[in-house]
Amino acid sequence: MDIMFKSTRGAKELVTASQAVVKGIADDGGLFVPTAMPKIDFELSDITAFSYRELAYRVLRLVLTDYTEEELRGCIDRAYDEKFDTPLIAPLVKAGKYNFLELFHGRTIAFKDMALSILPHLLKTAAKKNGVDEEIVILTATSGDTGKAALEGFADVEGTRIIVFYPEDGVSDVQKAQMVTQKGANTCVAAIKGNFDDAQTAVKKIFTDVKLKAKLKEHGFVFSSANSINIGRLAPQIVYYFYAYTQLVNSGDIKTGDKVNFTVPTGNFGNILAGYYAKQMGLPVNKLVCASNDNKVLYDFITTGSYDIDRKFIVTVSPSMDILISSNLERLLYHLSGSTDETRRMMSELAEKGRYEFNVNDEFAAEYATVGETLDAINELYKETGYVMDTHTAVAYSAYKKYLSESGDKTPNIIVSTASPYKFAKDVLRAIDDKYDGINPFEALEVLCDVNETPVPGPIKDIDKREVIHKTVIDKDEIESFVEKILL
Ligand SMILES: *Cc1c(COP(=O)(O)O)cnc(C)c1O
Questions:
Q1: What is d(CA 114, CA 234) in angstroms, rounded to the nearest whole number?
Q2: For this structure, is 112 an active site residue?
Q3: Is 399 in contact with 291 (CB distance < 8 Å)?
Q4: Phi and psi for 33 in degrees, rounded to 5?
């Protein structure tokens, strides 16, 4: 069955999956959602022996229905290859009584690689299928990890340019070093004086600026997005929820058909939404536990029904979750309310008043961890098991423990692990031992190596010794004019 996509905000236009991938966001500012939720057409017992690539094909073909088998397999083969440092791609690792789904084995050692290693291929294929001749300009707002993963994915990809905006003071030293040293003639990176929400809002505004889009089209450019507002990023993330499940079956922890919980460190709600899609497609999931850091707008929303961004933005040790305006929540609001009118109304209330009310159902639970609790969690698990978590994964671990003690829900749980501890080595080390307080962030990489008894991952080895290529810093109000200046 062909799945079509429509805007969450009610525009009548229906597009195919490949058209939605090229467009990134709907013309009315809404996000593309499937008009009918696809359902798995395989038995869970039949997929337990599948490789990541085979499973990716079986799942993606159900969502991206207008891609041919050859096209999809081509994209998958080019994405999930030796760029990952394990043939499992997304291994499920046990530490004590906890299961961690490690999504950080790709080129930038954060979970964004899971989708951004395939998105450029999906996009190029989509452009060809739809006769798009213009150069595709990927505009990306990043809280740290998306930027680098998108840069790696799109660097020197013919027919594309990529422009990344990151908050000057809102990313880790390693994240920043990764971005500003990015090579590739088609890459451009700028720091902005503002936070992630400022960058994301400015970028979303450009996507719906009809005049600017027309002007750029004259010059041979179209915009697309590498943020999780693009369905081409969301769809590949569904795959690893199935893959995690099969690994838990294979290890004998569960039988096929048993339900599992996932605890997901959440910012823009893209990762956990992919888990929700997996559930809707037929994966036996009981609860999706949404884990927040001190910017606990999602925790408050899920537990009280009120989404309210009128609060202080807090810079934490888990910067990729320092977000107040969580874009993919819009898709969930649409799916749960079943109404584009309702969704549009809530989104305009958010834009105008900074708040809206909606009751999320009990498929979701929510918890949060403060910076102190996050660091304690790293320390605790390391002392108990020797396993070193990054600061984002530690938020989820801490949240899961709270959930467990409050709910008593003994359903087997998988903690989604979103970054390598090396990416946040400085904070991880000071969590492990006070003596590392104030350690130089790059020296921390070498020290963590000894603590963790594994080598520094290749992608960030000697990252501080590479040439800084991107030095631009702009005001948050200059994003649009900067884009014009770069392109025209
Ligand atoms: C992006 C990111 C998150 C948040 O994921 P969302 O899909 O935005 O909810 C969590 N942890 C890390 C390390 C990330 O890079």
A1: 10
A2: yes
A3: yes
A4: -130, 150
List, in sequence order, every beta strand (DSSP E) within 384-469. 413-417
Q: Which of 6, 23, 94, 112 is catalytic?
A: 112
pTM here is 0.95
Q: What is the mean pLDDT of each run of 10 residues along the chain (488 residues)?
A: 94 96 93 97 95 98 98 98 96 98 96 96 95 94 91 93 94 93 97 92 90 94 91 97 98 97 97 98 98 98 98 94 94 98 98 97 97 98 97 98 98 98 96 95 94 92 95 95 94
DSSP 421: G
Q: Which residue has the tokens 């605890």?
A: 263
- In short, whether 116's Cβ falls inside 6 Å of ligand 1 is no
Distance 28 CA to ligand 1 centre (A): 26
Ligand 1 pocket: which of 164, 316, 392, 424 to mutate (most atoms within 8 A of CB): 392
Q: Are 236 and 168 in contact (CB under 8 A)?
A: no
What spacing in Å lies between the alpha carbon of 112 and ligand 1's midpoint? 7
CATH number at residue 434: 3.40.50.1100
Residue nearest to atom 8 of ligand 1 (CA): 268
- Total domain count for the chain? 1
Ligand 1 center to 145 CA (angstroms): 8
User: What range defines the domain where residue 117 resides?
Assistant: 1-488
